[in-house]
């Protein structure tokens, strides 16, 4: 298999890809993440493509380049990283006691050919009090994460259940990715 370049600055994506014992390097993309799409699965696939294309164009084109993007969706609203702490609080108050979806889009480009897919995971939160939310925001954990939480961190105590791939929530659906590249 070809050498891989992961077009991501996310430490979580790096850790997840390391679980598969693949040989890869990291080149984060700083391309502007703009999309006119509104459906969450389309948003994440387009943004993953933007990141992968940006790095593929700047690479020697000998490697397989992977881009990924994660959002939370709740009743048609697409939630990315919070703008500020007030935004994080609003988001977590809204997700309290409810089930939402997490979408990660993945784009891989090899020999100029792009393949894009997405994976969806449902996550259900217990009811969380305003006080708990404020204490959680003080940890700083929500600020760089889609939906204002990290399932792998202190948001662990909010989780009633999940349906689908855990690693998809953390930012990269590693098992599905391996299935796709073996096709
Ligand atoms: C829902 C959820 C998201 N996240 C993270 C995964 C992603 O890193 C982040 C969503 O932001 P993204 O824009 O998908 O990625 P990024 O900016 O961190 O990295 P890059 O664009 O360089 O690849 O939210 C968690 O770590 N845990 C969670 O439970």
TrEMBL record:
Active site (catalytic residues): 69 (proton acceptor)
Cofactor list: a divalent metal cation
Record Pfam families: Maf
Function: Nucleoside triphosphate pyrophosphatase that hydrolyzes dTTP and UTP. May have a dual role in cell division arrest and in preventing the incorporation of modified nucleotides into cellular nucleic acids.
Similarity-based family: Belongs to the Maf family. YhdE subfamily.
InterPro entries according to UniProt: ITPase-like_fam, Maf-like
The name this protein goes by in its record: dTTP/UTP pyrophosphatase
This protein's record includes keyword Zinc: no
Residues the UniProt record annotates as site (Important for substrate specificity): 12, 70, 152
Catalysed transformations (reactions): UTP + H2O = UMP + diphosphate + H(+); dTTP + H2O = dTMP + diphosphate + H(+)
Major localisation: cytoplasm
Gene Ontology MF terms in the entry: hydrolase activity
Enzyme class: hydrolase
Statement: the UniProt record of this protein carries the keyword Cytoplasm: yes
Location(s), subcellular: Cytoplasm
EC number: 3.6.1.9
Keyword set, alphabetical order: Cytoplasm, Hydrolase, Nucleotide metabolism
SUPFAM superfamilies: ITPase-like
């Amino acid at each position: 298999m070809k050498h891989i370049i992961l077009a991501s600055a996310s430490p979580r994506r790096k850790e997840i890809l390391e679980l598969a014992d693949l040989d890869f390097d990291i080149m984060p993309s700083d391309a502007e993440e703009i999309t006119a799409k509104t459906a969450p699965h389309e948003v994440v696939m387009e943004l993953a493509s933007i990141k992968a294309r940006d790095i593929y164009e700047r690479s020697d084109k000998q490697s397989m380049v992977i881009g990924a993007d994660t959002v939370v969706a709740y009743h048609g609203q697409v939630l990315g990283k919070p703008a500020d702490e007030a935004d994080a609080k609003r988001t977590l108050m809204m997700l309290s006691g409810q089930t939402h979806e997490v979408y990660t889009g993945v784009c891989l480009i090899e020999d100029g050919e792009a393949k894009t897919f997405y994976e969806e995971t449902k996550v259900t939160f217990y009811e969380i009090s305003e006080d708990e939310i404020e204490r959680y925001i003080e940890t700083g954990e929500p600020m760089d994460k889609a939906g204002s939480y990290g399932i792998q961190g202190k948001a662990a105590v909010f989780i009633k259940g999940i349906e689908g791939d855990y690693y998809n929530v953390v930012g990269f659906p590693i098992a599905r990715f391996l299935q796709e590249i073996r096709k």
